[in-house]
Specification:
The chain is globular and about 55 Å long. The protein contains 13 helices and 12 strands. It starts with a strand and ends with a helix. The protein folds into 2 domains: about 160 residues, Rossmann fold (3-Layer(aba) Sandwich); about 170 residues, Up-down Bundle (Dehydroquinate synthase-like, alpha domain), CATH 1.20.1090. About 40% of the residues lie in helices and about 20% in strands. It has a 7-stranded mixed beta sheet. Strands 10-11-12 form a 3-stranded antiparallel beta sheet. The protein has a two-stranded antiparallel sheet with strand order 7-8. With about 325 residues, the chain is an alpha/beta fold. Helix 5 packs parallel to helix 6, helix 6 packs antiparallel against helix 7 and helix 6 packs across helix 8.
């Protein structure tokens, strides 16, 4: 499957196809010099599959995990690019999960005022959600994604074959973003998770999730309005992640708990709880409410004691509501 994401800064193709990584050079272009940014958790077989297509490519490998998504790693990537002689006409390829895409994309956005960037997501989370949309960032000051830029990729290559090497916990965590996409815009996608055989539909889940995000990004590239819907579960989820640490609680696990807190309908909460149980994802966080609210106040979307919350009264019909941050206290208690 191939489709285009069209934004005010141009359009780019997204390839969702088994075996796509083997022909990445045909998509990226062999005439360009390539610099690969990846993390230590990406299996060597996938790194080698890309390197063999670009034998003179530069390579930077950083330690796996959210803890590496910081200014120091970003600076080290830029230094390595300078040392490798990367120019403005070259291409940075981010190979890995959301951290690789975020920090690799931010390096591409800032190096020599911006170079070409191709995203090759290798996790469920990044193939379903973070691989497209152009958000790049690092964590700073204890706050997730507080320094970054909008920098759209030149192409995205999502190969479901690479998901075969993922640990079960990461696989399930990534699917939380697909559940989110179903809640905010696609009842049919949500319904897939209510079936016993949802694991047999991973390609459809990836496709439908990306089409939800594509439509929203095209409506609102810079998150001035409807793109905020993609933050469903994330306002509290990011706070949980910062507070608990990425090793104790993965991104999708935090989003799962954040989604449960933002639903008011008992019927919807019960349906979501069943899906989360099936996926092995937590439904409630016992973190200190005061510490959670303090982190929400530092969220980049917060201001003057208020924040735009994403709520949903029906599957596929999420909406935005400006609320006082203090109003979240009650949601944390239930």
């Amino acid at each position: 499957m191939e489709f285009e994401v069209r934004t005010g800064r141009g359009s780019y193709p997204v390839y969702v196809e088994r075996g796509a990584l083997k022909k990445a050079a045909d998509i990226i272009g062999k005439a360009r010099k390539v610099f690969i940014v990846t993390d230590s958790g990406v299996p060597e077989k996938w790194v080698d599959m890309l390197k063999v297509q670009f034998r003179d490519a530069g390579l930077f490998v950083f330690p796996q995990g959210e803890a590496s998504k910081n200014i120091q790693t970003w600076s080290a990537i830029l230094s390595a690019m300078l040392g490798a002689g990367v120019t403005r006409s070259d291409t940075l390829v981010a190979l890995g999960g959301g951290v690789a895409g975020d920090i690799g994309g931010f390096a591409a956005a800032s190096y020599m005022r911006g170079i070409r960037f191709v995203n090759v997501p290798t996790t469920v989370l990044s193939q379903i959600d973070s691989g497209i949309g152009g958000k790049t960032a690092v964590d700073f000051g204890g706050v997730k994604n507080s320094v970054g830029a909008f920098w759209q990729p030149a192409a995205v290559i999502a190969d479901p074959d690479v998901l075969s090497t993922l640990p079960r916990r990461q696989f399930s965590s990534g699917l939380a973003e697909a559940v989110k996409a179903g809640i905010i815009r696609d009842p049919q996608l949500f319904a897939i998770f209510e079936k016993d055989d949802f694991a047999d539909h991973i390609e459809e889940i990836i496709r439908r999730s990306l089409l939800v995000k594509k439509a929203i990004v095209e409506e609102d590239e810079l998150e001035a309005g409807s793109r905020k819907l993609l933050n469903f579960g994330h306002t509290l989820g990011h706070a949980y992640e910062s507070l608990l640490g990425p090793d104790a609680c993965l991104h999708g696990e935090c989003v799962a708990m954040g989604m449960m807190a933002m639903l008011d309908s008992p019927e919807l909460k019960a349906r979501l709880a069943k899906i989360l149980e099936r996926l092995g994802l937590p439904a409630k966080c016992d973190a200190d409410p005061e510490k959670v609210l303090d982190l929400v106040r530092k969220d980049k979307k917060a201001g003057r004691g208020r924040i735009t919350a994403v709520l949903a009264d029906a599957i596929g019909k999420a909406y935005l509501k400006d609320i006082k941050i203090e109003e979240l206290r009650g949601r944390l208690a239930r």
